[in-house]
Amino acid sequence: MKINEMAARILICLCTFLFAHHGFAAPSYKINPGDFLAIDVWNEDSLTRDVVVSPDGYISFPLAGSIMIGGSTTLEAEDAVSVALGKFLKDTPTVTISVKQLAGNKIYIIGKVLRPGEYPINRPTDVMQALSIAGGLNTFASENNIKILRRLKTGEQTAISFEYGEVKAGEDLETNIVLQSGDVVVVR
After folding, report:
1. What own/partner pairs with CB < 8 Å and gap ≥ 24 does 119-125 have?
2. I want to staple 36 with a disulfide (CB 3.0 to 4.6 A). Which of 47, 64, 88, 100 is the partner?
């Protein structure tokens, strides 16, 4: 077997292991309030359970109490739960968290679109895709007068301009940003 073939096989095995352990969700997905999680504590069947992330980003977990995991990746949340449980167990446990339902990952589209409303998103979604989900702009919409409202971690809100007509023409493509959970697309 050549070295390149061996390296390729090792890479495939590594990727297979990583996907099997952490699922196919992007590792950078941030857990949101309302998400349904499956938490598995290895060798502690009584602690394995499904939980819902509360509106403030916390989960309640036996022994550990309230743990803040909102805004964390699944790997960060696994560490937080493991550390919290480690205070009460003989050894620091191995914790695996899987997102069962992305109920908290939502965007909002309002204004002059065919179907304004709240939309759950389960994959990275840019502005053009979001407008498509909402049925597109209606005949009275101003193509180049669209704003994305985003709340920062500090609580401050910012407005990001988006010119649909420019992106539709293949220009200013960098403005077709990927939306974040909680973003509001306002079409005037």
Report:
1. 121/179, 121/181, 124/26, 124/178, 125/178, 125/179
2. 100
